[in-house]
Amino acid sequence: MVPRGEARWAWLLSDGGEPRNWILFLAPLVGWHDGGWAGIGWGVFAAVFTAVLPTLILGFGERRRYWGDRHVRRRQDRIVAAPGVMASVITGTALLYGLRAPVEVTALVTAMLAVLLALLVITFFWKVSVHSAVASGALTILATDFGPWLLVLTPLVVLIGWSRIRLRCHTVGQVTVGVLIGAAVSAPVYTLLG
Fold first, then answer.
1. Digit-coded pLDDT (tens) for 135-182
2. How far apart are CA 131 and CA 88, in angstroms?
3. Rounded distance between C-alpha atoms, residue 18 and residue 16, angstroms
4. Which residues are within 8 A (CB) of 58 and not within 5 positions of it... i.e. 6 or more apart?
5. Where does 17-129 have alpha helices with state H?
6. For 96-113, b where at least 16 C-beta lie within 10 A, e where not — what string?
7. What is the residue-wise DSSP string for 163-192?
8. d(Cα 84, Cα 53) in Å, to the nearest integer?
9. CB 57 within 8 A of CB 63
10. How far, in Å, CA of 109 to CA of 105, rounded?
11. What whole-number distance in Å separates Cα of residue 87 and Cα of residue 187?
């Protein structure tokens, strides 16, 4: 059993480091980097389709008991939840390209979509940590835009992974694969398109 104080820290790290929060922070920041104040607006627009609407979809499914909670812990439930989330991200990506949003913002959502697709393929066979994938992908993109010095935040990604393991949501292997996929998929896609 996880000690009480340790469990509290694990929950705080897990909830604070959930994918939605990374995206809500990252999308406007990438938009600002590419287009100043107008870019922030595009980043917020991107976050609506990649963070806000997916959160609402997951909340709706939780209330209807299509899956157990907003983190969709059961692998089989993730396959059920994926189409709604993917539809939102694909719609947002198409709109950003169609409306000629700043290049870095469209590259960001395309990289997110690529990571989601990779995770979905794995989910048909095995459970992988989305928290870890999004955290490592976000950090990779931040380091690409603002410099490798931001890799000093790597311990934050490690702590988020630790929280998922401590809460028994994932194994060490599932967290490790999530970290590797997040970085390995998002970095080349973002660099190529950005």
1. 999 999 999 999 999 999 999 999 999 999 999 999 999 999 999 999
2. 19
3. 6
4. 67, 70, 72, 81, 85
5. 19-47, 53-63, 75-98, 103-123
6. beeeebbebbbbbbbbbb
7. HHHHTTSS-HHHHHHHHHHHHHHHHHHHHH
8. 9
9. no
10. 6
11. 23
Return the domain boundaries, the chain: 4-193
**109's tokens:** 């959502």
**SS3 sequence, 102-114?**
CHHHHHHHHHHHH
Q: What amino acid occupies position 33?
A: H
The amino acid present at 161, given as its one-letter code, is: G
Nearest C-alpha neighbor of 189 from the set 118, 114, 130: 114
* 87-134 pLDDT, tens digit each: 999 999 999 999 999 999 999 999 999 999 999 999 999 999 999 999
Sequence length of the chain is 194
